[in-house]
Amino acid sequence: MTDHDGNREREPAGRRAAGGRAGRFRLRGWGGVAGMAAACALVASLALPALSPAPAGEPLATAPAGRERSTVREAEDCTDPEASLRPSTAGGPNIDAIRQRGKLIVGIDQNSYRWGYRDPVGGGLEGFDIDLARAIAADILGSPDAVIFRAIPTNQRIPALETGRVDIVVRTMTITCDRIEQVAFSTAYFRAGQQVLAPKSSPVTGYDASLEGLRVCSAEGSTAYEALERNSFGAVFEDEHDGQPQDEDLLTVPNQLDCLVRLQLGLVDAIVTDNALAAGQAAQDPAVELKGDGPFTTEYYGVATELGKDDLVRRVNHVLEEYRKGPWMEAYRTWLEDDLPGVTGPPQPIYRAG
Amino acid sequence: MAHPPYGGTAHQAAAPVHPGPEPVPAYAPAQPAPAGGRGALAGARRRMSRAATTEPGRLRITGALLAVLLAVFGATAAVAVSERAAAAEDVVGRSQPLSRDAASVYRSLADANTTASTGFLAGAEESPAVRERYAQDISRASRLLVTAATHTDASSESGRQIAHLNEYLPRYTGLIESARANNRLGRPLGGAYLRYADALMTEDLLPAARRLHLAESARLEADHEAARSWPLVAPAAGVVALAVLGWAQRRNYLLTNRVFNRGLLGATVAAALVLLWVVGAQALASSRLHDADVHAQRSLDVLNDARIDALRARANENLTLVARGAVLTDDGKDDKYAAEYAQTMDTLGAALEKALHHADDEEGRRPVDTAVRAMGEWRTRHDGAAGADREGDYEGAVRKVIGREGSTNECFDAVDAALAEALAHEQREFTAAAVAGRSALDGLAAGAALLTLTGAVAAILGVNRRLAEYR
User: Fold this and answer.
1) Could you tell me the sign of the dihedral formed by the alpha carbons of A246, A247, A250, A255, in that order?
2) Count of A-B CB contacts under 8 Å
3) H or E stretch covering B45
């Protein structure tokens, strides 16, 4: 599972593949839900033995003993990790606490170009995620500036929520079955997926046979890497000493952005990564572009809160309802369209019953 | 002059015990072989056995033997002493400076890497001083590598490491400039370049520089050993020469009842002086060089290591703020740079403790104490910066790390300056001890040659005086 940095975030490939978004839309309805549940349960039962000993990249708050039980329950429940609480402006103790403070504390990234990054001259933060965070602050507190941004590292996103250091995290955070056990997510605010990035002059046409014989870079343990493992189209994508101390970190790298360094230095020919992040890469190098018609996988970004802060989740979902009606496209045009063209609108929300 | 009173008896008694020609072949291998082939040698042997049957003949042989023994003693002493003096000179004038230069290359590279990350954190506001320090580090390293290359055989271990460093250093600086350019444009890609450059430095350049330093230290150690090794042949030759002189004088006394032969006595005094001088000077030189090696050089090595540790810890501290969790440890639990910071700080602590242990005077201990205190403060302030970072106050964390006042940068600078002072002190100690060791051998080679030559002349004169009694 790729997240902002695309690093070492692993989710059983099988579950994701079976629950792929493209299929989910077609299977909508009661039959679809039942079918999905069955498919998930089957895949999870197959994936489980392989899953339990493998430590995921991110430190998990759940104890190892509780892990297996939760995975089972998750497999039963995890048909729609993106399904969130219904929107509401009713408020509650968490909204009250934010109002009392007068500021919304938001965990953001500052190294993700076009999403959340620091303007080197003004020193301010800007990007798609930052705009969304300001919109949420404006809705709750009446001013887009009533917000305290806290730059948190990738591996601190969940701990930052759990310890209450931040109210919400808006940080290209992918909604996954694993994570919904640890944090609550809003409805999806961006649809992303894996895509190939290569120099404009490159003969690569996408995630297809044009990759044959080329050196392809991906982040270690990322969805991109797993996709290449399943089908690399004859591309070279593994380092000789992967997973060993003398790992070359050439074709599989700690962080997706490292791939762009290797590409610019001529050490690799193409990159496979999350297209939202790839857009950020392309924005930093005018000589590269996203290849192919669109992403070949699907994943969603959501706003995360601590588990149980239902009033806050509902409020954010309310903001997103409004945001999708206009500001979303505006933000898309400002930050992403140049490098990630062809997106016609935000992903539609899915709500849980109740 | 009267005939020797017991001439006949002495002859009969001495002949079976000391057959004249014997000593000559016995010592022949130790001395420069007399010119001439086997035939000439056999002829000389025959002439000598004939000569050994008369007292004047025996005296002539004794005189020649003494002259040869003293010459051998003088020659071996001069050779041994000049070899050791040359080795001591090498320690002072060549291998220690080269080892120091290698350490300086190592430190300059680590310093450049650390400074680059400090400048990177400051971004567009990078101060001219930081930029200048980076530039100086790189030029110093390049310059020292050129010097080292001229003193080094290209196929040796040092030569290979120098070639490697020369090849990769420009790549490193290229990556740093890419990092800088992207960073100034506000592109996070700059951070990725910086991490790539840091990986090249830590995984490739620094290990090569370390190997270069180790190879140079080994060369220094070899020169040290050569300078301190005890000469064996020369003192042995001296003892033999003195023994033969003693025998000759005793024989003279028994034959003539005269206690002193001035020539032989003079030769004995000269030989004894040379022997004492060689032994005494060597003992003194060894002790001084031992001081230089054991006290100063080991302190220098430990302090150099500590300084590198401090630089690595500082680079990791900076990179933690640059990478923002972009790279995790292999088990995926912690931030890679934060973990490496903690690790290098522990290593630094251990190195400082070792340096305190090696420091043998107050002047050496004081700066190390300062470094230890500054490191404690550094740790405290680092926790403050890490806390600010955890709270999401990134700018506050950066201020606490690279700011002017109250930052960990101050502590790092204090540690670095204290270690530089300690290094300078130990370097002075080293040079003083090594120079003292070398000067203990000053003039000894020439003196030994001159004295033994005088002794040889005196011995011959002494024997001639006895020979004259037979005319």
Assistant:
1) negative
2) 104
3) helix B38-51
Positive or negative, the Cα torsion across B12, B17, B18, B20? positive
AA identity, residue A52: S
Among candidates B317, B393, B322, which has minimal Cα distance to A165?
B393
Please tell me the distance in Å from A353's CA to the nearest CA on chain B: 35
Instruction: Judge contact between B467 and B64, C-beta under 8 A.
Output: no
Q: Which residues of B touch A55 (CB under 8 A)?
A: 331-332
End-to-end CA distance of chain B: 10
Widest CA span in chain B: 113
Distance CA A336, CA A352 (A): 30
> Tell me, what amino acid is at A257?
L
Q: Is B366 exposed, middle or buried (0-12, 13-18, 19+ CB in 10 A)?
A: middle
In sequence order, what are the residues at sequence separation of 6 or more whose Cβ sits closer than 8 angstroms to the Cβ of residue B424?
Answer: none
pLDDT of residue A24: 42
Instruction: List C-alpha distances in Å: B330 to A4, A200, B195.
Output: 19, 34, 16
User: What is the residue extent of each domain of chain A?
Assistant: 13-77, 93-192+298-335, 194-291
CB pair distance less than 8 Å for A155 and B392: no
CA-closest candidate to residue A231, choices A280, A279, A196: A196
CA distances (Å), B447 to each of A218, B274, B277, B443, in order? Answer: 75, 8, 9, 6
What is the CATH topology of the domain spanning A93-192+298-335? D-Maltodextrin-Binding Protein; domain 2 (3.40.190)
In chain A, which residues touch B (CB < 8 A)? 5, 7-8, 55-59, 105, 107, 109-113, 117-121, 123, 148-156, 160, 165-166, 249, 254-255, 257-258, 260-261, 264, 280-281, 284-285
The yes-or-no answer to whether A93-192+298-335 and A194-291 have a common fold is: yes
Contact in structure between B434 and B99 (CB atoms under 8 Å): no
Give, for all 354 residues of chain A, the pLDDT tens digit: 444 444 444 444 333 433 334 434 444 444 444 544 555 455 444 444 443 333 333 333 333 333 333 444 444 567 788 899 999 988 899 999 999 999 999 999 888 899 998 876 666 889 999 999 999 999 999 999 999 888 877 777 888 899 888 999 999 898 988 889 999 999 999 999 999 999 999 999 999 999 999 999 998 878 888 889 999 899 999 888 877 777 778 898 888 889 999 999 999 999 999 899 899 999 999 999 999 888 999 999 999 999 999 999 999 999 999 999 999 999 999 999 998 888 899 999 999 886
The CATH T-level fold of domain A194-291 is D-Maltodextrin-Binding Protein; domain 2 (3.40.190)
Structure tokens given for B459: 């011995």
pTM exceeds 0.95, yes or no: no
DSSP state of B193: H
Exposure string over B52-81, b if 16+ CB within 10 A, otherwise e? beebebbbbbbbbbbbbbbbbbbbbbbbbb
A125, A116 in Cβ contact below 8 A?
Answer: yes
